[in-house]
Amino acid sequence: MARRARRPFAGEHVSTEAVVSAIKESGSNRTPLRIAGRSTWLDAGRPVRADKTLSLRDDSGVVSYVPGDLTLTVRAGTTLDEIGRVTGEHDQWLPLDPYGSNDGTIGATIATASAGPLASSFGFPRDLLLGLEFVNGRGDVVRGGGKVVKNVAGFDLSRLLTGSWGTLGVITEVTLRLYARPKVDRTFVVKLRGTEKQVTGLLRAFRGAPIAPFAMELLNATSARALSLDDNPVCLIRLGGNAAAVDAQIKAIATVVKVDEVADAMWSQLRNLENGADDTIRIAALPVQFVATSAAMLKDEMPGIFSYVNIHRGVMRIFTSPQALTVAAGIPDGRTSVDLRVSSENPGEGVVVYEKLPAEVWPIVSPTVISDSLSQGIKKAYDPHGILNPGILGD
Predict the structure, then answer these.
(1) pTM of this structure
(2) Is residue 48 within 8 Å of 391, Cβ to Cβ?
(3) How many domains, in total, are found in the chain?
(4) Which of 180, 210, 240 is the C-terminal boundary of a domain?
(5) What's the pLDDT at 295?
């Protein structure tokens, strides 16, 4: 039976009806809106040209929860922490762990398509999203997808809104696919010491080992040091499932290298390393390319630059601690040196995605991502007056 419990809003001043009203008013006045959740990541993306903010932070709570179906429907302002508490009562979880803290809202997580280490095993936000409700730039309430795991195929509005950064509509409600909590969930660290050739050989052995980790990240020395793991690069591995499966994987890894178990909280600490960073850059390439080049990239060449690599997904994240860079490099603004480093480290034909940059740098390195006619046509259809997060994806 569905569990229907909803937390009252703060004064009930934010709801789907309130969002409709705000958008229609802004549309009639041609007043741009900054769409936000709890406003914990407003410095991501290109600068938004809007003086007025529409926040969903008070529109939170569970709309319906059917543990037997592994489905949960919540308002967009519900935090990941709250979802974790609710689903944990039934030994279930939403394996969505975007970088940053769990204070962020599910609506913002879906809107920005933010993912973390667990994505290599459980998929991205679009894979865990069954359906949603949103309000477009005309003030129309639109629903996409459904509330069951199996939906009829068609025009997938849910995936269209995922990663649209609030430019096509304001997400007000989402339905999510859950998983049963694993009986065993353990984390191990491998210290990557030795020559580049030795580390590369070890990574190749990992790729060929009979293991299926929930998450696996290679951390450079700066990141490992920040987590008090080692002064050298390390590999964090998260194994889960039943006891027999986890034990078999541990034995498989032990035949290649020595492993030490660490607290599960290490993943939370890793994700929180990016809080406060001024620059965050993501590089995507074929996993095999990262295996061949990770040993060199993980070297601690410049203090203040943090990086980690997921060799299963083929993704490297780089971010900076501006204060540390300024002191170490003796430059007035350490942030602007990041793009030069990325250019020299970009493996093969990798794709560079910028998540956070100083406002003055965006027009130089990534002026827009919606220059094609298809993207512009979709934007015009869903937000004809251009009032939703104008400029965040470019012009």
Answers:
(1) 0.86
(2) yes
(3) 2
(4) 180
(5) 75
